Amino acid sequence: MNAVATPVPAAVEIVALTKRYAPGTPAAVDQIDLRIASGSYCCLLGPSGCGKSTTLRMVAGHESVTSGDILLDNRNITNLPAAARGTAMMFQSFALFPHLSATDNVAFSLKMKGVGKAERQKRAHDLLDRVAMGHLAERKPGELSGGQQQRVALARALITEPRVLLLDEPLSALDPFLRIQMRAELRRWQKELGLTFVHVTHSQEEAMALADTMVVMNHGVIEQVGAPHAIYNHPASEFVARFMGGHNVFDTPAGPIAVRNDHMRIAAVDGAATHGLAAKVTDVEYQGTYVLLGLALDAAAPGRQSVSVLLGEAAFLASPYSPGDSVRLSWAEADARTLGPGVKPPGQRSAATATTPAGALRDDTAAIAMTL
Q1: Listing from the earlier edge strand, what are the strands of the sheet with 265-268?
Q2: Nearest C-alpha neighbor of 364 from the set 252, 215, 285
Q3: CA–CA distance, 223 with 219 (Å, rounded to integer)
Q4: Could you count the other beta carbons within 10 Å of the beta carbon of residue 2?
Q5: Helix (H) or strand (E) holding 264
Q6: Is residue 84 a contact partner of residue 62, using CB atoms and an 8 Å limit?
Q7: 344: helix, coil or strand?
Q8: Which run of H or of E encompasses 116?
Q9: Model pLDDT for residues 219-237, shown as the tens digit of each residue
């Protein structure tokens, strides 16, 4: 493989960054503060409309900033044109020119800068070699698979020698199998190149697999920042617990708590099981190494609420459950995480909160944990 120079990565700092598309309208991004370490892989994560893509476009220079600042290694780039920032964007659609070869696609930006043909093609070939595409350098995008097109798009972004690579949902157009393969390659490339990657995604699984730092956004603000394992195991709010998945959220007299569904304990009602929350099994999903049970709590009005329990395959086969079975649910007190209020639209409360009868969780979670 030919040697390719890699620029020194940059730290990204966002200070009170705000974007409004019209005066007097709600902010798409509302005074967020964030520091992304140099040479790290950061994922901006959240539902559609949370502000993650708008934030990325402002960092890239493709979206104007209403107020606030964007810095790369303490250099304020807020008002610089995109080409002068030291960033490069890799788009969701790849945006390759269909009439150009892989080599010419990668070299295109150098051509626009007036770099001679021999030099730009050499640099393009070096980068195509780096992403294992040198043998397909003369093929056009229509002759390449989705994963191969992504490698070309990555090489095209790298040829500008960015200090920060920005990725806007780069895996969403790929089929599930290829998506898993390509996220492993993205992580490997980031480590080999040592660049700072900022990656927008709506996939919790993708963010947890890739990120050193995960940034969970909601309604234009940041709900939580941290390592994937820290956010999954210690969600800061009801929104984060629900959005990350794998958690049940309960109201208690002391406030909402979250319990991971693989930490839930389930027992059949056989006359002896009188502690815990009464529920009925509503569905059973076999997932190979585990079984996911859906349950409806026997809760007071306004209606039954659903929760889930994750059982290992062996545990389920040793004590199987079927839809309609009456059960009792419990958990260890140490497995319950107290949740903060988080960010919600005015007057809106999460409709999916599992509300338990008064006293069902007396003394916080101790009454449930006593059964273990």
Answers
A1: 265-268, 326-330, 277-286, 290-297, 306-312
A2: 252
A3: 9
A4: 12
A5: none
A6: no
A7: coil
A8: none
A9: 999 999 999 999 999 999 9
**Do the strands 277-286 and 326-330 form a parallel or antiparallel pair, or are they unpaired?**
antiparallel
Residue with tokens 């402002």: 58
Using CA atoms of 335, 336, 337, 339 in order, give the dihedral in degrees to the nearest 10.
Answer: 160
User: Both tokens of residue 281?
Assistant: 């099994």
Give yes or no for a contact between 356 and 278, defined as CB atoms under 8 angstroms apart.
Answer: no
Q: What is the largest CA-CA distance in the chain?
A: 83
What's the whole-model pTM score? 0.84
Smallest Cα–Cα separation from 40: which of 195, 207, 193, 183? Answer: 195
> Which tokens in the block code for residue 317?
């086969």
Alpha helices in 113-175 (DSSP H): 117-130, 146-158
Give me 371's structure tokens.
Answer: 């059964």
The values of phi and psi at residue 62, to 5°, are: -95, 0
- Asked if 285 and 365 touch (Cβ cutoff 8 Å), the reply is no
- Superfamily for the 8-86+166-233 domain: P-loop containing nucleotide triphosphate hydrolases (3.40.50.300)
- Give the pLDDT score at 357: 37
* Rounded-to-integer distance, Cα 9 and Cα 193, Å: 9
- Which residues have a Cβ under 8 Å from the Cβ of 303 and sit 6 or more positions away? none
Instruction: Give the DSSP per-residue string, 267-284.
Output: EE-SSS--SSEEEEEEEE
Q: What residue segments make up the domains of the chain, in order of their start?
A: 8-86+166-233, 243-369
State the angle between helix axes of 146-158 and 176-193 in degrees (0 to 180), rounded to the nearest 10: 20
Read off the pLDDT of residues 89-114 as tens digits, 9 standing for 90 and up: 887 767 788 999 999 999 998 888 88
- Average pLDDT along the chain: 85
What CATH class is the domain 243-369?
mainly beta
- Identify the three-state secondary structure at position 30: strand
